[in-house]
Amino acid sequence: MFVPAVQLAAMAAHGTAVLELLLEAVPDLMSVYEYPEFSECRPVNSAARAGNSEAIRLLLQVAPQMASASDERHTVPLHEAVLSGSPEAVRLLLKAAPQTAAAFNAEGLLPMHLAACGGSVECIRLLIDAGAPGLDVPTERFKHLPLHCAAGDDHEAAVRFLLACHPAAATAVDRRGRRPLHLALNRLDFSQASLNVACALLPVSGLSAVAAAGPPCLRACSSAACAAAICRHRRAHAPDP
Fold first, then answer.
1. Nearest to 71 by CA among 114, 104, 109, 38
2. How far apart are CA 152 and CA 103, in angstroms?
3. Is residue 222 part of a domain?
4. What is the CATH number for 35?
5. Average pLDDT of 30-40?
6. Cα(165)–Cα(152) distance, rounded to whole angstroms?
7. How far is CA 27 from the centre of its chain?
């Protein structure tokens, strides 16, 4: 009965008071989550997924070992926190379990990859400051660097920050031979955000990267906005007559 209540309270924006009441009523409640069958609903993971730093702080006071506990998908709370985009949650978990900054989940993603997917520059910065690996580490399945992840999800600020931290990532190719620019261009829902990301990547990826993307990229590049961006880039980098 208390398991879903704790999980829901951990996710709620103002659930800390409810958590305190539950933990007071059942002092050994957190011991339930040591069992494998409850690993998927650990309240610390739920709080991290919601970016609820106050709940994380309270839960770690009661069960500090949960900061480094992984579930059946090899997910630790830090994976959830960086994806939520909550810097304070990330800060708490890095302090409680700094070793989890180098933890891969079952899909072969590090916290750095997930932070790039979430798009929070501050979360990425916190990981880098903590010495977390990942800027030049490809994911297991698709061989994506964090820059691929940010570009594919249209996170312009994260793309620019990652470029500044690791410029060589702009020309790195994934399992299908695609650079981060390809992921920004090769979208069926090409938007203004996609265009902004493409414009950030064009100067360091080169026009040859666009040409190498193949027919799917040409389909996306047929949009007037993207074509205009490429033309502007060509004019800006054309040799003097």
1. 38
2. 22
3. no
4. 1.25.40.20
5. 70
6. 18
7. 34
Mean pLDDT of all residues in 90-105: 98
Q: Which tokens in the block code for residue 115? A: 């932070």
> Model confidence over 53-94: pLDDT tens digits?
999 999 999 999 999 999 989 999 999 999 999 999 999 999
User: For residue 96, is it within any domain?
Assistant: yes
**Residues 119 and 85 sit within 8 Å (Cβ to Cβ):** yes
Q: How far does the chain reach from its first CA to its final CA, in angstroms? A: 77
Q: What is the CA radius of gyration of the chain?
A: 21
What is the amino acid identity at position 220? A
Q: How many domains does the chain have?
A: 1
- In a domain, residue 211? The reply is no
Nearest by Cα to 119 from 11, 219, 193, 54: 193
Q: Which domain holds residue 97?
A: 1-103
Whole-angstrom Cα distance, residue 113 to residue 184?
16
pLDDT 10s digits, 39-61: 677 899 999 999 999 999 999 99
DSSP the chain: -HHHHHHHHHHSTT-HHHHHHHHHHSTTGGGGGGSGGGGGG-HHHHHHHTT-HHHHHHHHHH-GGGGG---TT---HHHHHHHHT-HHHHHHHHHH-GGGGG---TTS--HHHHHHHHT-HHHHHHHHHTT---TT---TTT---HHHHHHHTT-HHHHHHHHHH-GGGGG---TTS--HHHHHH--TT--HHHHHHHHHHHHHH-HHHHHTT-HHHHHHHTSHHHHHHHHHHHHHTPPP-
* 75 within domain boundaries: yes
Model's pTM, two decimal places?
Answer: 0.85
